[in-house]
Amino acid sequence: MQFRLKTSKETMEILKQLQSSTNLTPNILARFAIALSLLSKEPIESFESDTNGLEFNRNTLTGEYDFVYKALIAQHLGRPVADDEYFPFLIKKHLDRGAKWLENEYKYAGNYEKFIKGLANFELEMIR
What we know:
By secondary structure, the chain is mainly alpha-helical. The protein has one domain (4-127): DNA sulphur modification protein DndE (Arc Repressor Mutant, Orthogonal Bundle), CATH 1.10.1220.160. The chain has six helices and two strands, in the order E-H-H-E-H-H-H-H. It has a two-stranded antiparallel ribbon. Helix 2 (26-39) crosses helix 5 (83-109). The longest helix has 27 residues, at 83-109. It starts with a strand and ends with a helix.
């Protein structure tokens, strides 16, 4: 069982840039990125990225809600997920894919307040 994952270099750069713009820590931004990725109906299995970025500890990233993240990922896949597949493999894929969307959301919003409000309403707009 692994307890650490490394993001892609691109994700690292995105999270650092967003941290300087929003004052949100990378682990909070990473959770937003995972959530955005889970909203997509696109399959995650084919998403590929490198491992040259930030290192996250499992407990720092998912904490007491680790079982919730695992259940959401299993629901997204439509099948049970083994622990070694869930972390770091699938969490990393969702984090790296979602980071790109998170960056786009910030660019579109233009500032922190609009960014946070946009994230709060993101799911509603995707459903409509």
